[in-house]
Write a structure and sequence with these properties.
The chain is of the alpha/beta class. It has six helices and nine strands, in the order H-E-E-E-E-H-E-E-H-E-H-E-H-E-H. Helix 3 packs across helix 6. The chain binds hypoxanthine. The purine nucleoside phosphorylases catalyze the phosphorolytic breakdown of the N-glycosidic bond in the beta-(deoxy)ribonucleoside molecules, with the formation of the corresponding free purine bases and pentose-1-phosphate.
């Protein structure tokens, strides 16, 4: 993997991805952040050597380099999911590349279902800890020890300083920002009522199908990380309605301005 990482990184450096400080993974509910970035250069996933081959859905996926709030950022527009058929190593390969390009901080957003029923759809949740239910680890491969500590510490995977800043920004801007535990499942099917009950008993406040693999690799690489979920549906096992994807997307869009404020103000403060 080391040779591939070097090849991918030099391709991007030759395209002008110069010393970004911060990496951002734009999930559902943060796409419009791109409008705030002064774009310097970009590369389609399809053209980047050794990047996972993009699916139809991801054909417009790209890596973007530019300036946001005075900081050099590299942004993933579109992420890879295990439910699309990628391996955990594929899903997290871009994190290894962003680190090699120079980032010290990784910021992630996603959409999630609220398991904690005190949290309402359309609200945001700062991820304070997580439960990996992906069935494996992105670090479970031969040679991982050449890229970082195999037995990566997970006692504090989310950066406390950044989270304190996020909370202060939310308060100053009258944004409801819950804090909680995010459980990451494979999907793509939604959960059964019994699974929602299980997740609650396990201590999850929210559930989604992404983010944890990237956070594990970011910790493997000693990056500072933080992640925010937009809660798009309320997962009440005693009153569960059929999933409504249109409503999930609508909720994510509704919360987007708040998510953008949080990310912009945070980046300004870093
Ligand atoms: N489950 C899993 N992933 C999700 C959900 C959910 O309820 N809502 C949004 N992403």
């Amino acid at each position: 993997m080391i040779k591939q990482i070097e090849e991918t990184t030099s391709y991007l450096q030759n395209k002008g991805f110069e010393n970004p400080e911060i990496g951002i993974i734009l999930g559902t509910g943060l796409g419009q952040l791109l409008n705030e970035i002064e774009i310097i250069t970009e590369a389609s996933y399809n053209h980047i050597p050794n990047f996972p081959t993009a699916t139809v859905e991801l054909h417009k996926g790209k890596l973007i380099y530019g300036i946001l709030e005075g900081k050099k950022v590299v942004v993933m527009q579109g992420r890879f999911h295990v439910y699309e058929g990628y391996t955990l190593q594929d899903v997290t390969y871009p994190v290894r590349i962003m680190e090699k390009l120079g980032i010290k901080t990784l910021l992630v957003s996603n959409a999630a279902g609220a398991i904690n029923l005190n949290f309402k759809k359309g609200e945001l949740m700062l991820i304070e800890d997580h439960i990996n239910l992906q069935g494996s680890s992105p670090l479970a491969f031969k040679g991982v020890e050449l890229l970082g500590e195999r037995f990566t510490d997970m006692s504090a995977p989310y950066n406390a300083e950044i989270n304190t800043k996020f909370k202060a920004i939310a308060k100053a801007n009258n944004i409801t920002l819950h804090e909680g535990v995010y459980a990451s499942v494979v999907g793509p099917q939604l959960e059964t009522r019994a699974e929602y009950r299980m997740l609650k008993i396990m201590g999850a406040d929210a559930v989604g199908m992404s983010t944890v693999p990237e956070i594990i690799v970011a910790n493997h690489l000693n990056l500072k990380v933080a992640a925010v979920s937009v809660l798009t549906d309320e997962c009440d096992p005693n009153n569960l309605k059929p999933v409504n994807i249109a409503e999930i997307i609508e909720m994510a869009a509704k919360a987007e301005p708040n998510m953008i404020t949080l990310f912009k103000e945070l980046i300004k403060s870093l």
